[in-house]
């Protein structure tokens, strides 16, 4: 009996989550997709948790209800990062969608141009990423100059350290195993002067 109630309670959470998410994306402003989806997951977990205190949830003791809340928070996070955020940010999905748009195939030597001339523009990639960083408090824009905040500097240092020491040293890239992505700035050439005055 308790197993059936647990499955039903999870189904209720799923319905609440999808309802809140769909209402949010269709009728409310969204600053950052990931943050909005996280908020939707938290709200859905709280709503579903509150429903457990109705007669429907009598089969669960308070500790089990608390466990379910934790499970739903984790499921909300998993949904947020695995569905809307991946679809919104994924270059891999863009490649698939672009191939479909172009009738199923694009010459390999033209893919670089597709990324630089179409992907950046079509997905407003620079605007999206700057907005996300501003909302995260990692950058500010002052007088046309994008600047790291102290928080941004700390995160950059941590991510650079992680990249250098904890990303694969033998990663397959186009038929060759390489460590190029552990230090992508190794052979970086600045295309022009970007420094702020």
Report on this model:
The chain is 63% helix and 7% strand. With 197 residues, the chain is mostly helical. The protein has three domains: 87 residues, no CATH class; 39 residues, no CATH class; 33 residues. Helix 1 crosses helix 2 and helix 2 runs antiparallel to helix 3. The protein is elongated and about 65 Å long. Keywords: Membrane, Transmembrane, Transmembrane helix.
Compute the number of strand runs: 4
> Which radius of gyration do the C-alpha atoms yield?
22 Å
Report strand %: 5-15%
- Overall number of domains: 3
Keywords:
mainly alpha, elongated, 4 strands, two-stranded antiparallel sheet, 197 residues, 3 domains
Task: Compile the SSE list and pairings.
Elements: H1 2-27, H2 33-51, H3 62-82, H4 84-89, H5 91-101, H6 111-122, H7 125-136, E1 139-142, E2 145-148, H8 150-166, E3 171-173, E4 176-178
Antiparallel strand pairs: 1-2, 3-4
What is shown here, in short?
The chain crosses the membrane at residues 7-27, 33-54, 66-87. By secondary structure, the protein is mainly α.
């Amino acid at each position: 009996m308790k197993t059936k109630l647990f499955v039903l309670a999870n189904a209720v959470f799923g319905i609440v989550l999808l309802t809140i998410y769909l209402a949010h994306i269709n009728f409310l402003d969204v600053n950052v997709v990931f943050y909005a989806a996280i908020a939707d997951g938290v709200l859905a977990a709280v709503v579903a948790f509150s429903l457990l205190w109705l007669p429907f949830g009598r089969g669960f003791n308070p500790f089990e209800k608390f466990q379910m809340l934790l499970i739903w928070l984790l499921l909300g996070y998993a949904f947020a990062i695995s569905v809307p955020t991946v679809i919104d940010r994924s270059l891999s999905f863009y490649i698939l969608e672009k191939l479909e748009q172009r009738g199923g195939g694009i010459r390999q030597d033209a893919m670089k141009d597709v990324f630089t001339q179409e992907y950046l523009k079509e997905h407003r990639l620079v605007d999206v990423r700057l907005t996300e960083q501003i909302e995260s408090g990692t950058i500010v824009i002052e007088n046309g100059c994008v600047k790291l905040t102290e928080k941004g500097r700390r995160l950059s240092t941590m991510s650079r350290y992680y990249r250098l020491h904890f990303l694969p040293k033998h990663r397959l890239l186009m038929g060759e195993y390489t460590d190029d992505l552990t230090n992508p700035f190794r052979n970086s050439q600045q295309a022009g002067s970007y420094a702020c005055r």
